[in-house]
């Protein structure tokens, strides 16, 4: 049984927390000062300490910070969660830097506190290390993640370990490295797998629409709000919310996001009624958030809230041995979609693909393979089939148009619609607006190209 020590000078807080944690199956002791804790810890040997930052002799939190430094110095193996008020959150962030595992604000929510404790304890448990892809696949569901590079296997081992917990995960890496696939794998291997997995591209949401998109709105909240709308947090309740491109979020929206991550409550736009959610949050970005924190463009407290577990994905050039497997995987999928069952890549072409730099990573490789399949009449793809498309793929700026003759107008139209549907997450109104056509014109094209969609 895990032992917990509560350090708080408020007897009511001690009693409340002790009762809650004992009912949850923990062994609990309390004390009212860091000095008393120092005497108690050697004999009691707690696994985890809940430490208040404010004591009766002062309210700045400095005494709590001194206690944290003492505990980390003298009892480094003990896990620590900080209790703080909103006024001392900056101090709590400093505490995270000193080794605290989490910080919670008063008044705390019982479910949130228990979830935090269990997550931290689960992450500390030692697990058997598995070093081969075969063993990983026997233990976890990584069906859509291709590769056997040691860097990738280390990442899969990490996410397999943290997936069953509710730990927030930050996934970083260059564009096209597969951050969304990793987020989906975490959800698929979690206890929430039968619940919703909701994706949000924060880079595509303006500051004015942020609250409506994430928290929902009620009818009449603004001019075009003709009916109530459920936000992404509520849609993801009891499941996982994937916040992609979190580095693109403006500072005012960061504050609103931090509030809901901290309290697990929010108010739909235009409503005064609070709602509570149980959501596991996974974030991703291709930006350097630590650098943004130092520049003042990303909140430090939000960074520590989303960054309990950090996973950095390697660029494809750092795992070239996986290029052949990925290319073969794409061909096997695309030959079914395009009804060309004899399609394959020659061994020489696979070896040649491994020599490419591919700055766009996995996404660029997939686009290259798909374009080559579309434009090549051959069932066996050779080096020359790929070379016809690689120059433009590697060197053209993002805004450049394809050269004349490489795509028909119909192929270009199909490509742009697919990109717009992916970017705007199948939101018909936004896709139509971004393409400069009406919704009805977009519906006709979706039906023409056989692109699936759902009514809003």
Automatic annotation (TrEMBL):
Keywords, ordered alphabetically: ATP-binding, Nucleotide-binding, Phosphoprotein, Transcription, Transcription regulation
Family annotation (PROSITE patterns): RESPONSE_REGULATORY (PS50110), SIGMA54_INTERACT_1 (PS00675), SIGMA54_INTERACT_4 (PS50045)
A UniProt-annotated Pfam family: Sigma54_activat
CDD domains per the UniProt record, alphabetical: AAA
Keyword Heme listed: no
InterPro entries given in the database record: AAA+_ATPase (IPR003593), AAA_lid_NorR (IPR058031), CheY-like_superfamily (IPR011006), Homeodomain-like_sf (IPR009057), HTH_Fis (IPR002197), P-loop_NTPase (IPR027417), Sig_transdc_resp-reg_receiver (IPR001789), Sigma_54_int (IPR002078)
Signal peptide (UniProt feature, chain positions): none
Residue span(s) of domain Response regulatory: 3-121
Chain positions with 4-aspartylphosphate modification: 52
Origin superkingdom: Bacteria
Chain ranges of the Sigma-54 factor interaction domain: 145-374
Protein known as: Sigma-54 dependent transcriptional regulator
Organism: Flectobacillus rivi
């Amino acid at each position: 049984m895990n032992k917990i020590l509560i350090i708080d000078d408020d007897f009511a807080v001690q009693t409340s927390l002790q009762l809650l944690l004992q009912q949850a199956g923990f062994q609990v002791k309390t004390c009212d000062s860091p000095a008393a804790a120092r005497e108690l810890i050697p004999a009691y040997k707690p696994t985890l300490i809940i430490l208040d930052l404010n004591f009766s002799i002062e309210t700045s939190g400095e005494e709590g910070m001194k206690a944290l430094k003492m505990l980390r110095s003298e009892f480094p193996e003990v896990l620590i969660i900080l209790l703080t008020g909103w006024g001392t959150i900056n101090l709590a962030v400093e505490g995270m830097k000193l080794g605290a595992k989490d910080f919670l604000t008063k008044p705390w929510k019982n479910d949130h506190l228990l979830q935090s404790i269990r997550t931290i304890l689960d992450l500390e448990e030692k697990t058997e290390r598995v070093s081969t892809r075969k063993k990983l696949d026997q233990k976890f569901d990584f069906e859509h993640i291709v590769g056997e590079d040691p860097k990738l296997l280390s990442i899969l081992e990490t996410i397999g370990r943290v997936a069953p917990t509710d730990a927030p995960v930050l996934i970083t890496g260059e564009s096209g490295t597969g951050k969304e696939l990793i987020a989906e794998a975490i959800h698929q291997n979690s206890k929430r797998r039968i619940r919703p997995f909701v994706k949000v591209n924060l880079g595509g949401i303006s500051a004015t629409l942020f609250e409506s998109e994430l928290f929902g709105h009620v009818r009449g909240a603004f001019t075009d709000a003709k009916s109530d709308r459920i936000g992404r947090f509520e849609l993801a309740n009891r499941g996982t919310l994937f916040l992609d491109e979190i580095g693109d979020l403006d500072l005012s929206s960061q504050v609103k996001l931090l509030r809901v991550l901290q309290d697990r409550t929010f108010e739909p736009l235009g409503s005064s009624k609070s709602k509570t959610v149980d959501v596991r949050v996974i974030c991703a970005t291709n930006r350097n958030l630590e650098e943004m924190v130092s520049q003042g463009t990303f909140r430090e407290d939000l960074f520590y809230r989303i960054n309990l577990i950090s996973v950095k994905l390697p660029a494809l050039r750092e795992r070239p041995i996986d290029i052949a497997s990925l290319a073969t995987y794409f061909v096997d999928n695309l030959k079914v979609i395009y009804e060309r069952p004899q399609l394959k890549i020659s061994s020489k072409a696979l070896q040649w693909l491994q020599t490419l730099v591919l700055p766009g990573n996995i996404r660029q490789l997939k686009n290259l393979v798909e374009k080559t399949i579309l434009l090549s009449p051959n069932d066996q793809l050779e080096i020359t089939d790929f070379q016809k498309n690689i120059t433009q793929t590697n060197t053209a700026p993002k805004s450049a148009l394809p050269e004349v003759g490489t795509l028909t107008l119909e192929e270009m139209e199909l490509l742009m619609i697919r990109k717009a549907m992916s970017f705007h997450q199948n939101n018909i109104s936004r896709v139509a607006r971004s393409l400069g056509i009406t919704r009805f014109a977009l519906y006709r094209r979706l039906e023409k190209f056989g692109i699936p969609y759902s009514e809003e």
